[in-house]
Amino acid sequence: MKNYITIEEFINGIPKAELHLHIEGTFEPELMFKIAQRNKIKIKHESVEKLKAAYNFNNLQEFLDIYYEGAGVLITEQDFYDVTRDYLKKAHSQNVLHTEIFFDPQTHTNRGIKFDVAINGINKALKDANEKYGMTSKLIMCFLRDQDSNSAKKTLEDAEPYKDWIAAVGLDSAEVGHPPSKFKDVFNLAREKGFLTVAHAGEEGLAEYVSQALELLNVSRIDHGNNSLDDDKLVLQLVKQKIPLTICPLSNLKLKVVDDLKKHPLKNMMERGLFVTVNSDDPAYFGGYVNENYLEITKALDLSKEDVYKLAKNSFEASFLDEKQKEGLINRLDSFCSDYL
Ligand code: ADE
Ligand code: ZN
């Protein structure tokens, strides 16, 4: 006889990995004000409430404008540590056993903050979470695609002393007008140096950008990838090559990639055999961490506990952990689920 728990309890308790998470996007307004005060920086919005009220976006660019402004109060290693520590605490409370975190060095180096300051603060928090919670992590360094490729190259050079701390390079920021092809050379260089590669593609950009990310950047995963569905041949390729798509339901809703979660393509993607995972993207801005993303999309699309299990299993399988680590985490997942499925 199996035990019964609600779908919400099942989602909260199920072991999972998060694979699409911008650390700058976890910067909660309360911490932002605290750090701004400590650094004697004035935030444009005069209170937490007024700042939160501004989190109303019509598209990716409107969000990015406010996201870069928020990241602008991060100055010291301690600031980067604090943001990362708070995210990891929250992720641990949501039964995230493994997380793969993006950071945007250029967001900080462009305003005179040294690469070392950001990565040292983030890395220390990752190490502490491993000791405290047993949580594992990987770091992914994203290039801002609306900057030129020379700036990305310079960032890759900055990363050289920290190669052991960085698993992969990625591509984020304003997508339309900044195709993957712009970064072919720097991604080649990154792969020569031993980095894995991922890229945001098909969030606002066309399916063609997803194809380019696969063909020209040799990515191991696509971040978002929603618009892949417009191209049947591409869908077949993604299925055949088992390329993971890191899907972010609440982000898609808040940035108007979909106008209603009921119209979100996640279930359709699963039915077509795509290798999808659920993630929070920028949880401080989009109204939910990973469990809220699972819950809202489950309610909207009437997903079953088996579907949730599949998504959680995909999250481990699509991670950059080695096979033995994946097996260990999937065993923990199966042991949790054996009581309820
Ligand atoms: N940077 C932070 N969140 C992003 C997103 N959803 N798309 C592109 N760049 C981002
Ligand atoms: Zn993202």
Question: How would you describe the overall organization of this protein?
Answer:
With 341 residues, the chain is α/β, with parallel strands linked by helices. Helices cover 50% and strands 14% of the residues. It has one domain: Metal-dependent hydrolases (TIM Barrel). It contains 17 helices and eight strands. The protein has an eight-stranded parallel sheet with strand order 1-2-3-4-5-6-7-8. The longest helix has 19 residues, at 115-133. It is globular, with a radius of gyration of 19 Å. The N and C termini lie close together (10 Å). Adenine binds next to helix 4.
The first-to-last residue Cα distance is 10 Å
Order of helices and strands: HEHHHHEHHEHEHEHEHEHHEHHHH
Mean pLDDT: 98
The major beta sheet can be summarized as:
8 strands, parallel
Number of domains: 1
Just give the CATH class: Alpha Beta
CATH A-level architecture: Alpha-Beta Barrel
Which fold name fills CATH's third level, the topology? TIM Barrel
- The quaternary organization reads as single chain
Radius of gyration: 19 Å
- Give the uncertain stretches in residue-range form: none
Number of strands: 8
CATH superfamily: Metal-dependent hydrolases
